[in-house]
Design brief:
The protein has twelve helices and no strands. By secondary structure, it is mainly alpha-helical. Helix 4 packs across helix 12.
């Protein structure tokens, strides 16, 4: 039996959930079923723990790039002085300039403003033109009506597509199987390639598992 996700449960975890996200979850049960997330409470708990972390409890649609110089040096030590070539003071509190500096020329970003255009967005903070193109391919495997996210990047945060983008990426990266192992560190590596925010993701998983408690031993999705 599919695990049901209700707005009441979302509100318990994220009372300040953004309007677009709330609208997506209101009609999102078929999406969670389509991408096999709703097959078990453990998968649902891990999925929501990750998106809650990535979006600041479902309040953020875009990557926060409004950093102080000190914070820039902490996040990208190889890019900013003293270890890197860039002067952090010139990028502090300048999100567009920062995005083009740290994301430009990689992740498929080739245009002069691509770093900013394809900055992190949505429930899993999709990043880079290649990432948007890949997500488009995944969506169009399920729906010919899916938008080209490289041409309509803000569709990633729309009520119509935000959940489907995240769920499709989640399934494609093997996160369902990692969630079956109840391995937060592995799920996190599949999501962002490292262990950024692991402690917070573990904490969120503890909270989501209280909302969607695991079934009896022996359950097989």
């Amino acid at each position: 039996m599919a695990v049901i996700v209700s707005l009441e449960q979302i509100n318990r975890l994220a009372p300040d959930c953004g309007a677009a996200y709330r609208a997506a979850f209101a009609i999102g049960q078929p999406v969670l079923a389509q991408y096999a997330i709703a097959q078990s409470p453990l998968r649902v708990a891990h999925f929501f723990a990750q998106i809650l972390h990535e979006t600041g409890a479902l309040t953020l649609q875009f990557e926060n790039l409004n950093y102080s110089a000190r914070r820039l040096r902490e996040i990208w030590p190889a890019r900013f002085r003293p270890r890197g070539p860039l002067n952090a003071a010139r990028y502090a509190y300048r999100p567009q300039k920062l995005a083009n500096a740290v994301y430009g020329g990689r992740l498929g970003n080739v245009g002069p403003n691509d770093g900013y255009v394809f900055r992190g967005r949505g429930l899993l903070q999709l990043t880079g033109k290649d990432g948007y193109a890949h997500a488009t391919t995944l969506l169009r495997q399920a729906s010919r009506a899916a938008p080209d996210l490289t041409r309509e990047p803000d569709a990633v945060v729309s009520a119509a597509w935000c959940l489907q983008v995240a769920a499709a990426e989640w399934q494609a990266r093997g996160c369902n199987e990692a969630a079956d192992l109840d391995d937060v560190a592995l799920v996190t590596r599949l999501i962002n390639g490292g262990s950024i925010g692991l402690a917070e993701r573990i904490a969120w998983t503890g909270k989501t598992r209280l909302v969607w408690p695991a079934l009896e031993p022996g359950f097989s999705p």
